Automatic annotation (TrEMBL):
Keyword Disulfide bond: no
Modified sites of kind 4-aspartylphosphate: D51
GO CC entries: cytosol; protein-DNA complex
Organism field: Undibacterium oligocarboniphilum
Domain of life: Bacteria
Residue range(s) of DNA binding per entry: 124-220
Domain OmpR/PhoB-type: 124-220
GO BP field: regulation of DNA-templated transcription
Residues covered by the Response regulatory domain: 2-116
Stated name of the protein: Response regulator
Example of a GO MF term: phosphorelay response regulator activity
Keywords assigned: DNA-binding, Phosphoprotein, Transcription, Transcription regulation
Gene3D superfamilies the UniProt entry points to: 3.40.50.2300, Winged helix-like DNA-binding domain superfamily/Winged helix DNA-binding domain
Amino-acid biosynthesis found in the keyword field: no
């Protein structure tokens, strides 16, 4: 899952990036409103963490610009402006949640997980396909009760697929969620992750199907 972090405090931004990357998210940083708007013109994200007090274009203007273009990406505001009036104003402008600074990283991650579940149409934090189970709170995959050992990018691919189990996920959507602008993407990188995942889930009853020209689908195939 790729997150845009819009925060001008470089120390805080680096700290959040490090912790969220350890939790399996792909993080891109913007230190100003201008940077954020530019990235949002060219990139897609699963969620945005948005500070309000930014140099130049303020966070509120970034939010207004985003919603004026009917971009429904979930936005979690992280701000030292913590009055009830501030919270209500920005929720009314289209923010999905509001977290006052200073905050606990565990609460931030819990709110982020909740936003991502809602945006993907998932209410239950536990998702299943065949014998595969994904607990989005612990961020662990299981195959018939046994923990699946996955690399961070294998995890990201399988998470994207299980969140839309039974539906086609395009190659672009998968690569957008895997790689940031700082990554070097080789043409066959995604195919390699898919191949590895197929081997790791082959006894689970779930299969990753290739839909040529469209993408991939995680689905359950009943034994004959």
């Amino acid at each position: 899952m790729k997150i845009l972090l819009v925060e001008d405090n470089r120390e805080l931004s680096s700290w959040l990036t490090r912790l969220l990357t350890q939790s399996g998210y792909a993080i891109e940083q913007a230190q100003s409103g201008e940077d954020a708007i530019h990235l949002l013109r060219t990139q897609t994200y699963d969620a945005i963490l948005l500070d309000l007090t930014l140099p130049g274009i303020q966070g509120q203007a970034v939010l207004k610009n985003l919603r004026s273009k009917n971009n429904a990406v979930p936005v979690l505001i992280i701000s030292a402006l913590d009055s009830l009036a501030d919270v209500i104003e920005h929720l009314n402008l289209g923010a999905d949640d509001y977290l006052a600074k200073p905050f606990d990283i565990q609460e931030l991650e819990a709110r982020l997980r909740s936003l991502l579940r809602r945006s993907s149409g998932q209410i239950n934090p536990v998702m299943t396909c065949g014998g595969i189970m994904y607990d989005s709170n612990s961020k662990q995959f299981f195959s018939y009760g046994h923990v699946l050992s996955l690399t961070p990018r294998e995890h990201a691919v399988l998470e994207a697929l299980i969140r839309k189990a039974g539906k086609t996920v395009s190659k672009k959507e998968l690569t957008d969620g895997l790689f940031t602008l700082n990554d070097t993407v080789t043409p066959k990188a995604l195919e390699i992750y898919i191949l590895r995942l197929r081997k790791k889930i082959e006894t689970s009853g779930a299969q990753i199907i290739t839909l040529r020209g469209l993408g991939y689908m995680l689905t359950y195939v009943a034994p004959e």
